[in-house]
Amino acid sequence: MLVTGGAGFIGTNFVRYTLEHHPNYRITVVDKLTYAGNKKNLEGLDIEFIQGDICDSALMDELVGNAECVVHFAAESHNDNSLCDPSPFVQTNIVGTFQLLEAVRRHGVRFHHISTDEVFGDLALDDPARFTEDTPYRPSSPYSATKAGSDHLVRAWIRSFGIPATLSQCSNNYGPWQHIEKFIPRQITNILCGLTPKLYGTGEQVRDWIHVDDHSAAVHAILDRGRLGESYIIGADNDHVNNRRVISLICELMGLGPDAFELVADRPGHDQRYAMDSTKIRRELGWEPRYTDRDTGMRAGLEATIAWYREHEDFWRPEKESVESAYAKRGQ
Ligand code: NAD
Ligand code: DAU
């Protein structure tokens, strides 16, 4: 199995999940090691690691040619960064996916494309609808537009060239090894540093949070039993939980009052609500999320994630100051 972007947040968790639950796979990770990738995340694991760029067509040809299947996570992934400089997003998310698809076309290898719920745009806060596999694409940010572009390429390569591929659109992940630029680890590490947690705008926005291990299990269900050519939405039914509730819960779980956060400048073009209807993957492939509870659906997963960041200061501490000073310049 070739895993692109395996030194990033979800890729690292997916590689670890695969070694534990599907030890029949021999894994090669290819990762450019941008600011978001860290080779140390994979230290001690029985895998092959190649530092490389998915835009490098000769390298992709060689690596894809040696694989039986490719799981494609590599991407520029942070919306806020895409608002400052969209260029690497176009390059990696669109051109990089194109180079992989061409290699897959030449070698006839099984391909799974990791996409995101953001390709569908957003819902109004009072709209009870949920995204399904048939929801039209309406991306809002440079990040989500480039992810949508890559999905269109994958579908075109399926239809025009018959490549054996599947896609999945998952909602917001949380868990260990997530970069501290992202909402949940930013707040946890703020509290660990004695800084005040930061909520954009009024915090009414809704993200349909899912634990990263549930995402990994869903990808394996698709690799094992998914129908070629199909897309699968992955979500854990947390679309009743807004950002304000999540930040309050983090504050409470870390011994602060539920209002111990501050409001900061909003994200331009901020998507309001994401909500996933994951009926198809549940019915067809028998997948179910395991991290669920009656409260926000996140308490147990958040407790474990907070404990992980407490114990893994070496993962985040070196970058904390520079990440926060970049946010501070934007009033966030
Ligand atoms: P991340 O930013 O933590 O990791 C991305 C990884 O890709 C990094 O290791 C980086 O070094 C690598 N990379 C970037 N450009 C590369 C290139 N040109 N060549 C090779 N490697 C490159 O991202 P993540 O949060 O782990 O997201 C992984 C994938 O999952 C992305 O495709 C993202 O769109 C998708 N996704 C993320 C979420 C989420 O909540 N984080 C939800 C749904 C889908
Ligand atoms: O929906 C899936 C997407 O989830 C993935 O495709 C992206 O790769 C991933 O980064 C994530 O995108 P979001 O923009 O939703 O995630 P982020 O962690 O940046 O922000 C989550 C919400 O929290 C969002 O409404 C903005 C808000 N936020 C974010 C930060 C960093 C804050 O209120 N405060 C913050 O400090």
UniProtKB/TrEMBL annotation:
Q: Name one GO molecular function term.
A: dTDP-glucose 4,6-dehydratase activity
Biological process terms in GO annotation: nucleotide-sugar metabolic process
Q: What is its EC number?
A: 4.2.1.46
Q: Which InterPro entries match?
A: dTDP_Gluc_deHydtase, NAD(P)-bd_dom, NAD(P)-bd_dom_sf
Q: What range(s) does the NAD(P)-binding domain occupy? A: 2-292
Catalyses which reaction(s): dTDP-alpha-D-glucose = dTDP-4-dehydro-6-deoxy-alpha-D-glucose + H2O
Q: Does NAD count among this protein's keywords?
A: yes
Q: Which UniProt keywords apply?
A: Lyase, NAD
Query: Cofactor(s) for this protein?
Result: NAD(+)
What family is reported?
A: Belongs to the NAD(P)-dependent epimerase/dehydratase family. dTDP-glucose dehydratase subfamily.
This protein is called what? dTDP-glucose 4,6-dehydratase
Name the species this protein comes from. Corynebacterium uropygiale
